[in-house]
Amino acid sequence: MNLQTVMRSLGIMCLLLICGCVKKTVKGDVSIYTYDLNTMLMVIAGFIAALGYGVYRIRQKEYWKGGFTVLIALGVGGFFIPSFCGDSLKITPERMVLTRVGFASDKSADLNFDDITHVTITMKETRGRRGRKNKNYYLNCSMNSGEVKVVPMGELVKEGLSDIVDNLQARQIMIVDNSGS
């Protein structure tokens, strides 16, 4: 296995992370959104390929290249594999439950639709380290208690947005789009 093969594997893995293949399962009146099994398997295969290549380089006495590849593989694998295997969005007629796992996934949400007074869709623009613009979209749900719960619109929420909007409109909850798009 050479460097080009590993780079192609990592490239395919990155493309799969960007496209976000989401699967919808309907059980009665419950819709469950999860990442597709093929996406999970490709991420795991890319992780194993990069890890194997790093070990191969270390055994060939190329310690820096191999160690660096192993560290990248462990970082990517430790960050993305739990997320792809555990993230889900469950929408029932009464509530929405967003479950996120992994290191950077602190935005899980459990919202009862009857407790929401109105929803605002917002966009926050941030700049990357090298000046690249990133647009992040959020559902700001104002609750009866006065609290505002912020739900990030990742791939799962984007796919389930039509079901969420249908449930909100059935309760005549106002939805305001302040995202500018």
Describe it:
It is a single chain. With 181 residues, the chain is of the alpha+beta class. Helix content is 44%, strand content 32%. It has helices spanning 3-19, 37-59, 63-86, 155-170; strands at residues 22-27, 30-35, 88-91, 95-99, 109-112, 116-127, 133-143, 148-152, 174-178. A five-stranded antiparallel sheet has the order 1-2-3-4-5. Strands 8-7-6-9 form a four-stranded mixed sheet, with helices on one face. The chain is elongated, with a radius of gyration of 20 Å. The N and C termini lie far apart (45 Å).
Question: Any chance you could write out the topology, listing elements then pairs?
Answer:
Blueprint: H1 3-19, E1 22-27, E2 30-35, H2 37-59, H3 63-86, E3 88-91, E4 95-99, E5 109-112, E6 116-127, E7 133-143, E8 148-152, H4 155-170, E9 174-178
Parallel strand pairs: 6-9
Antiparallel strand pairs: 1-2, 2-3, 3-4, 4-5, 6-7, 7-8
Helix pairs in contact: 1-2, 2-3
Relative strand content: 25-35%
Question: What are the secondary-structure elements, in order, as H or E?
Answer: HEEHHEEEEEEHE
What is the 3D form? elongated
Radius of gyration: 20 Å
Give the helix/strand class: alpha+beta
End-to-end CA span: 45 Å
Low-confidence stretches are none
Strand segment count? 9
Helical run tally? 4
Share of helical residues: 40-55%
Arithmetic mean pLDDT: 83
Q: Going across the major beta sheet, what is the strand order?
A: 1-2-3-4-5
| Main β sheet profile | 5 strands, antiparallel
Task: Describe the structure using short key phrases.
181 residues, 4-stranded mixed β-sheet, elongated, alpha+beta, 4 helices, 32% strand, 5-stranded antiparallel β-sheet
